């Protein structure tokens, strides 16, 4: 294979894993270098796929193209790896009287008919939940078991000989020749999928960062019954196994690290106790940082001065939904020379950094 078809991907989180697959699908040869030591936000995330912004009942930006791409991609990857990690599950929202009226009004919008079911009688046991008579149900929703996904993709990459488990040092890049080199090996493109750590990347440290810290709990309960349904009421309650649930998430724009806090734990427990009545026990408390942007759009594309260097980042809380579509777009940019969408292009944040006179 020609060197120009080789692509080095830095990071094997959600973005890097999806990009490696998209690259292979487009006839490229990916190499993924990943330091397993820093915690990945992907492994902490609940992995929800939700095409609706529940607070406003508006459709998520580009959901019509991103959702079919996500569903088909995860199904194909499950078949390829022999692992199950994507689960189709309805998301329910308890509706008070005002929310019920708003939901019914939204049902009149043709663009939402594929995503919102008519309000229905609450299927949750009122002995276990602080519920309302009516609920709304989101269609096309589900969740990705992010830990199983990452493990499955790592096994696939390893079997292909495409995964290097080591720390990537930006200083080891050589951009003096016609193609970028890393440790003496040339690549057609190098793409950074470093999540919120992109702020430490000397080639992309000019990008604005609006990352948010999120904390989640894992709880166990012998009495709580949800029958596979996901519940959203300020926070989500996600059944992930017999008697086991994920609860989240918090949002903080300061204290950006992966250390759980007592404040985050108390916030989640306080909100959870307004939803469930029965006893439960906390068995795990984790934190991660979501890579987000000021305009709430992902970032992808090529450096204005070093066009062989690219970025796939800024997924925020919609990464599992948007990731497959975004990765495919960037891979096609390499394989076919097609431009990336202007609303997503990394160059929208570029300011010419020429020295002052």
Tell me what the structure shows.
The structure is a single chain. With 357 residues, the protein is α+β, with helices and mostly antiparallel strands. It contains 7 helices and 22 strands. The termini are far apart. 43% of the residues are buried. The model has no long low-confidence stretch (mean pLDDT 93).
Strand portion, in percent? Answer: 25-35%
CATH-defined fold name of the largest domain = FAD/NAD(P)-binding domain
- Global shape: globular
Q: Quaternary arrangement of the chains shown? A: single chain
The helix count comes to 7
Query: How many domains would you count in the coordinates?
Result: 2
How far apart the termini lie comes to: 46 Å
Walk across the major sheet and give the strand order.
Answer: 8-9-7-17-18-19-16-20
| Strand tally | 22
Q: Report low-confidence residues grouped into runs of 5 or more.
A: none
Helical residue percent? Answer: 10-25%
Largest sheet: 8 strands, mixed
SS-based class: alpha+beta
CATH arch. level architecture of the largest domain = 3-Layer(bba) Sandwich
Write the H/E string, N to C. Answer: EHEHEEEHEEHEEEHEEEEEEEEEHEEEH
Question: Layout of SSEs?
Answer:
Layout: E1 6-10, H1 14-25, E2 29-34, H2 41-44, E3 48-49, E4 52-53, E5 58-59, H3 63-81, E6 86-88, E7 91-95, H4 97-106, E8 116-121, E9 134-138, E10 142-144, H5 146-160, E11 163-165, E12 173-174, E13 181-182, E14 185-186, E15 189-192, E16 212-220, E17 230-233, E18 235-241, E19 244-248, H6 262-272, E20 281-290, E21 299-302, E22 309-313, H7 319-336
Parallel strand pairs: 1-2, 1-15, 2-11, 7-17, 15-22
Antiparallel strand pairs: 3-10, 4-5, 6-10, 7-9, 8-9, 12-13, 13-14, 16-19, 16-20, 17-18, 18-19, 21-22
């Amino acid at each position: 294979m020609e060197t120009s078809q080789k692509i080095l991907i830095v990071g094997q989180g959600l973005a890097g894993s999806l990009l490696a697959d998209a690259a292979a699908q487009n006839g490229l040869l990916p190499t993924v270098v990943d330091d397993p030591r820093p915690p990945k936000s992907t492994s902490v995330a609940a992995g929800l796929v939700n095409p609706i912004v529940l607070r406003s009942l508006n459709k998520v930006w580009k959901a019509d193209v991103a959702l079919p791409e996500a569903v088909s991609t995860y199904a194909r990857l499950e078949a390829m790896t022999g692992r199950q990690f994507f689960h189709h599950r309805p998301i329910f929202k308890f509706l008070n009287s005002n929310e019920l009226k708003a939901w019914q009004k939204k049902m009149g919008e043709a663009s939402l008919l594929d995503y919102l079911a008519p309000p229905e009688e609450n299927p949750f046991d009122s002995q276990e939940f602080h519920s309302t008579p009516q609920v709304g149900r989101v269609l096309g929703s589900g969740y990705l078991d992010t830990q199983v996904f990452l493990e499955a993709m790592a096994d696939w990459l390893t079997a292909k000989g495409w995964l290097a488990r080591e720390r990537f040092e930006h200083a080891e890049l050589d951009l003096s020749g016609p193609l970028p080199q890393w440790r003496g090996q040339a690549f057609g493109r190098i793409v950074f999928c470093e999540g919120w750590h992109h702020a430490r990347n000397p080639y992309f440290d000019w990008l604005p960062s609006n990352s948010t810290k999120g904390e989640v709990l894992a709880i166990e309960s012998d009495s709580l019954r949800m029958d596979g349904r996901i519940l959203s009421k300020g926070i989500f309650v996600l059944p992930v196994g017999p008697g086991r649930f994920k609860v989240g998430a918090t949002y903080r724009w300061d204290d950006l690290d992966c250390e759980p806090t007592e404040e985050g734990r108390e916030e989640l427990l306080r909100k959870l106790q307004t939803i469930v009545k029965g006893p439960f026990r906390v068995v795990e408390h984790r934190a991660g940082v979501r890579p987000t942007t000021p305009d709430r759009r992902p970032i992808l594309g090529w450096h204005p001065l070093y066009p062989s260097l690219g970025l796939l980042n800024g997924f925020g809380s919609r990464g599992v939904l948007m990731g497959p579509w975004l990765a495919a777009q960037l891979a096609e940019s390499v394989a076919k020379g097609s431009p990336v969408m202007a609303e997503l292009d990394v160059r929208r944040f570029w300011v010419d950094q020429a020295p002052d006179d």
